[in-house]
Amino acid sequence: MPLTNRLTAEFLGTFWLVLGGCGAAVLAAGVPTVGIGYAGVSLAFGLTVLTGAYALGHISGGHFNPAVTIGLWAGKRFEAREILPYVIAQVLGAIAAAGIIYLIASGKPGFTLAGGLASNGFADYSPGKYEIVAAFVTEVVLTFFFLIVILGSTHKKAPAGFAPIAIGLCLTLIHLISIPVTNTSVNPARSTGPAVLLAINGTNWAATQLWLFWLAPIMGALLAGFVYGWLVGDDDSPVAAAADTIKNSVDEAVEVVNGEDKGD
Fold it and tell me: Is this prediction's pTM over 0.85?
């Protein structure tokens, strides 16, 4: 698949994730008496990944998240030279989606950015006022397990066709756990989109805290990529695949030789 097509798919997939997840948080979570609340927002994020992966995964791999792209590289599933183009496409998709959310939300009388446009934060800007260490640990650990689920469910030995379901449910669970702590990132692009829109409108707190929501998810993703590679014996790496091919070829040659010796 041409790189242009794959980057467009990543732009659209990340756009869909931010529009669906952050849009649900901004537009529907706090509606009096019928708001969807934390559980609804968690489900919205999971559904965007599930549907986006089925719709676009066969084009680009369905990353929609810089941490996923980097974690897949660490797990030897993705080429280093394509990381930067993927990340740029993802960030642009997230910013575009945040712009659409702002455009829609600002059409309501009395709308303000006091709610943060679903931005991620810690300390005073954490929904539950969790401090920086708690926020950092939460993002590292949950991104780690998110990548473990992604790497495992997309493994060649996993049941085919079910990966988007496992990944979507995993993201739902992650949000159920961590919305009170950081508003849940595990995705630097998802954090960047709302932060940029806030900064454009003169509110800078999300941008000043954005570093954590790049560093922590990427750390968790790198750890997961390396750990999962160790768990499965690197059997998805090009080196391991080449070694398996050579070994199989040698075994077949030995069998042929042995068969000829017996025939003689």
Answer: yes
